[in-house]
Design a protein that fits this description.
mainly alpha, about 40 residues
Length: about 40
């Protein structure tokens, strides 16, 4: 069961974005949480 390339790219991008966000902002703000919820939706 191989994920479609787009799905894999999306997952990788989300993980990368989360890592960068965490490095910049150790404490997530309400805006960050809202953005992450929208990204995963």
């Amino acid at each position: 069961s191989k994920l479609p390339v787009t799905q894999a790219q999306k997952l990788g991008y989300t993980k990368l974005k989360k890592t960068v966000t965490q490095e910049k902002n150790p404490l997530p703000t309400k805006e960050t949480i809202k953005q992450e919820k929208q990204a995963t939706a």
